[in-house]
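Design job #97: recover the sequence.
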């Protein structure tokens, strides 16, 4: 299943979740008005409530979320390219000779 997803270049649930979280934080931070920070506070509170329901500690959950907000707030794209998903051209090492 994993090989098929790799061949299709299909993102995992975690890939999508990371991108969604980064986009939510960076857009919320750069909105430039009061709605951005209050929106992030509301989202953080909702996330912590969900994490607490799973048994995680409230303070520790906020610490992790605060760290992610600090990391993603500048809006810079924080992810490295997934080199294993790059399509090689025919003739390149690892390229598909049938294409």
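Job complete. Output follows.
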């Amino acid at each position: 299943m994993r090989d098929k997803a790799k061949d299709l270049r299909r993102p995992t649930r975690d890939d999508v979740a990371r991108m969604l979280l980064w986009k939510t934080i960076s857009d919320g931070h750069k909105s430039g008005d009061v709605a951005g920070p209050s929106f992030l506070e509301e989202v953080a509170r909702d996330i912590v409530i969900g994490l607490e329901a799973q048994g995680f500690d409230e303070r520790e959950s906020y610490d992790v979320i605060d760290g992610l907000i600090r990391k993603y707030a500048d809006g810079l794209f924080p992810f490295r390219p997934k080199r294993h998903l790059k399509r090689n051209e025919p003739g390149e090492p690892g390229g598909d000779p049938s294409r």
